[in-house]
Amino acid sequence: MKCRNILPIVFGLALSLFAQDDGQAPTFVSVPQIGNITAGSPIEFEIVITDASPIESVRLYYKTGETRGFTSVEMEKDVNYIAEIPGFEVIEGVLEYYFWAKDAYNNQAFYPEGGERNPVRIKVGRFESEIEPKRFSIQMLYPEPNVQTDDDKPTFVFLVHDPDHLLDKNTLRVALNTIDVSGKLIRDGEVMTYIPERQLSGGSQEVRILLEDQGGKPLFMKRYPVSIGKGSPVADRGERSVWQDKLKINTNVGLDSDYDIFYGKEQPENRPMDVHKASARVRLRYGKIQLNTSALLNAHVIDEKAHDLSLRRQPLNRLRVDFRSPLLDVTFGDASLEFTELTLKGTRVRGLSAWFKLGWWQTAYVQGTTRQLIKPIVETHPDSTHWQMMRNITGDTLFVNHDKGTPVREFMGLSTSMDFYRHFRLGVSAFKSYDDVSSLNLDYEPLEDHYLFLANSVLGLNSELHFNHDRTVLSAELAISATNDLRADDSLLIHEGGLDTTLLNNINDLLGYPLTDDIFLGSAQGMGLSIPFPDLDDFDPASYLIDDVVKRGTYRIAFRTPLDLKWLQFDLNSEYFRIPANFVTIGNPSLQTDIMGLRSGARVRLIKNQLSLTGRYENTFDNVAGNTKNQTTHTESIVGGIGLNFYGFPMVNYSIRFMNRLGEPSEGYENPEELILNDNMTITHTVSPSYQFTAFKTQFNVNASYMLMNYEDANSTDNYNTNYLTQSLTTALTAGFEFPLSITLGGGFSITDPEDVTQAGTRFIIHSSRIGYKWMNNRLNTYIGYSMVDGFRDKNGLFDPGESYTDSNEDGQYNEGEPFLDEIQLDNSKFTLKAGAGYKIMKNFTIDGNMDLIVVNDEVDTEKEYNEFRFRMKLKYWF
């Protein structure tokens, strides 16, 4: 007898071994980029995530030079996790991004580690300037060269392009006029800033940048003229010439056509056969005033099904008008403002957003929608056997077929702060967001039972002491959230909560939506207030503020500071926080809840950054409210690291992490002896070497990262062993030649080996390569490359559901001792071949073509095998 259930293939197939929370956050293995990264072209990110628990959510956060805050998108699971930044949002300059993942037990991780504070930064350039001839450049973004500015104390901002890490081996000198300011530069990734200590005199200034080798030989030199205040212009060219220099207009239009065809499997709904995107962007700048407008229109011509489905999904078309000035920034369209960590961060709002900048007082306002209306489809019939039966007001029976829609989710937020003496900032942030029930216009009230209409309001107070050019910061934030089901009753709020009906109606009018009994009852799943509901019959404001709002509320206290000495640089950061399980903010989807504790870290850099020592300490626990889980788990982590970066030798970074998790019964739990308390330890080693050298007139750059993690559970037994060992490795080699040829090789693996000999290990192998060449004096840019991800999990010697067996007892089920066919549990691969070419037809007109051929093989379940062909053509014209 043969029985087979198709099991979903997930990269943590070993997860079925572990039925309890191991406290381990998801592990990331990045799939290298193969295609070119240029302005106006979409960027696809692919990442492999493994975990001993089911993955619940994965998001990509990104930010460009035009946005104030990070935008987040949910990554989709294909074979790996994939997300794409639309070409419409990829602009010239610096793109920042990081990944976030959460498993079913609320264990969360960022990639790179600490990415929410230090994201990956990549340069997005135009087609013709993607690789500099000497592989190094520094561009001054502000103040703009040759443009007069009234700012007599500007923050100088430089964009650094240094793929070969020349700054690590050579000396950079930056001078303002004749004064060397190199020691006062602040570098953060590819962005470097300098803040003058005093006001600059009016007139012409000059910034001089020089890169020298160890012997003092100049490798790179650049001069940028700057005009400050009402002094003389850089050159006397007449009134009309100066006016023309102040007014700058840049326009670009583009047309993208994507074709995506699947073979061996039905075309997925989220991968249409064709997508055509027309985009336009106009930038106008006069002095310090900027006006940016952009539009994007999506259409499906061949795939009629995709066209019909697009009408039932959130719209992808974009229209944005962005006005910026020294006092006021206004955006109409999609925007991602960032208030604070506990209120608004990473949520896109379509509507109006404004930022008022009046010296020491700044205010941000946003109003719009985070979800657009999709109208429901309701059909009625007097007689049906498959539709839902209802009765109208007259009592007549009628049958309804209902295709659910999506209500509009309104959003309104305000954040204001005052910066006293430029050193003490005090602010308040708040937003409200709710589903508009009336937007669906449902004719039959029982149909509302198919929906969950939510409302969420958050109020936050924040303060900040900042000195040393904002490098020394002590900040604190306190927040309260309220979440409720809009269709619930409000009788308990009135009779038990003590709210007067008139007062409740006034509050509802102020909020724009009704408060319901969820506010009074609350729940661990996020409904209700994030603080205890006040006793209105015996209300003591001072006691309630201290004991409930603060002590039992949601807050963060953070401190960071550097200490620069002649022979030592010291960086310290620390954070203490409390975020209960019932704190909910729609404004920040990646905020971890049900956690309280301390995180601290320090880094010491010696011998001109050639030797660095790092240390981190974390002590946290969950079940913050004390009644959301049967046990409270304390997690203590200690991390130590060392970095070596001596000239002429490979750069090496090593860290070791000890994490110990101990559980204890929740207070008041009746039968603590029945609990299996968490008691496990994880030791993680990470080694990251890198080395660059020159051989045969070719520059090579080699880097790698190896991670070894050992998990041991004190509750493991011979019959139930959850211990395992995980190791992963990523490597990359790049070669830059004197002629316009570039080669990149990459590879890596991730292996999980259970200690239980009856269980098989899981293995993933990744390798990739890319070759690029520029022809015709860099007018034609070509590349070809591939990536391969292979997953495998062997037989385990045991009968598993879905495997074939001989039913000797003829009872319709497997019995021990009956013959069965032990099968490989995971054996799949994804191969991607990429090739592309870009041709510069004219100075301001380019055409690009990219081709992807994807082959997915699955030896366990051949029904999951398919081939995919993707072709993308892009035309871009700018002036």
Note down, in words, how this protein is organized.
With 879 residues, the protein is mainly β. It is built from 7 helices and 48 strands. The strands form 6 sheets. It has a 26-stranded antiparallel β-barrel. Strand 44 (762-775) and strand 45 (780-793) form a beta hairpin. The longest helix has 11 residues, at 501-511.
Shape field: globular
Mean pLDDT: 82
Please report which band the strand proportion falls in: under 5%, 5-15%, 15-25%, 25-35%, 35-45% or over 45%: over 45%
Low-confidence stretches: 1-19, 127-134, 231-240
Describe the main β-sheet briefly.
Answer: 26 strands, antiparallel, barrel
Helix run count: 7
Please provide a brief summary of the model.
The protein has 879 residues and is mainly β. Among the domains are: 137-233, Immunoglobulins (Immunoglobulin-like); 246-444 and 454-486. Strand 34 and strand 35 (568-579) form a beta hairpin.
